[in-house]
Amino acid sequence: MQTLKADIQKPMQFISAGQFVSEVPWSHSRRSIDSYEVIIGVQGTLYIQQEDTPHEVKPGDVLLLLPNRVHFGHAVCDKDVSFFWFHFHCSGNHTLIDDARMAEELRLLRTRQDAEQLVADIYIPLFSTPRGIERLNILFQQLLHVANANYYTYQGTHYLLTTLLIELSEQTISEFTIGHNKKHSEINLARIMEWTRIHALTNISVCSIAEKFNYNKDYLSRFFKQKTGMNLQEYIHLLKLGKAKDLLSRTNQNIKEIAQTVGIRDEKYFMKLFKKYEQMTPSEFRKAFYLTHMNNK
């Protein structure tokens, strides 16, 4: 798998963005463009090929299309297929690297105590399925709002775009390092966090997670807090609220429906929890970023 490595000492240059929704069976046209394009799957499956590599972009998948490379639909998509898209140019140095080089660069960075001050690059894979796709969806909605708000300071779109790509890069790095040189305890933690993430929208609890992984509940809570800085119940809440914010920003579901979707039966408790973590109500969050741009061609 190839990955785009790009210098972000200057922000990426935003070009355009939107949400594609097809009302009929549809196939992507054949074309080659001079900018990068990121596609985030929202609904259905997008069948798209870049040069000789076919892809199936499903909800939660992220595809990076490269400039001056031919891409086209390799099959007809069902009606109602939908995806987010945005185009950008890199402002600084950028290149494609393979997994071996990325592993070596990350290994060297982990040996530097001042790495956080030195790193000015992001890593964007050509195809990925980020674990925290809700965070990317929320950042995209914010980007789309600002892009269509006629701000006097249009630079805001460049910085929001760069923020979104940094988030994707951080998730990529985290996922990449899980399987490289990790201690047994860290592997177990990663498994616990991933299982919790997958089941976060159900009625899970610290007790049920402890039982699943054969841990004492109190020991698991201490272990999780020691490794992550937050308790396990808080992690569950953050996962549920992350999905809730995603739904608030891109759907018309009402508050009660969203609460039930994320596994919280009591609407009032959901609103109280949301206000505690976000310092605003769900309705206030929904009203914050509402401008959009949609296309069907």
Automatic annotation (TrEMBL):
In terms of superkingdom, the source organism counts as Bacteria
Cited InterPro entries: AraC-bd, Homeodomain-like_sf, HTH-like, HTH_AraC, HTH_AraC-typ_CS, RmlC-like_jellyroll, Tscrpt_reg_AraC-type_HTH
Domain HTH araC/xylS-type, chain residue ranges per copy: 190-288
Q: Which residues form a coiled coil?
A: none
Do you know which PROSITE patterns this protein is assigned to? HTH_ARAC_FAMILY_1 (PS00041), HTH_ARAC_FAMILY_2 (PS01124)
Q: Does the keyword Acyltransferase apply?
A: no
In terms of Pfam families, this protein maps to: AraC_binding, HTH_18
GO molecular function terms noted in the UniProt entry: DNA-binding transcription factor activity; sequence-specific DNA binding
Ordered alphabetically, the record's keywords are: DNA-binding, Transcription, Transcription regulation
This chain's protein is named AraC family transcriptional regulator
Organism, per UniProt?
Paenibacillus xerothermodurans
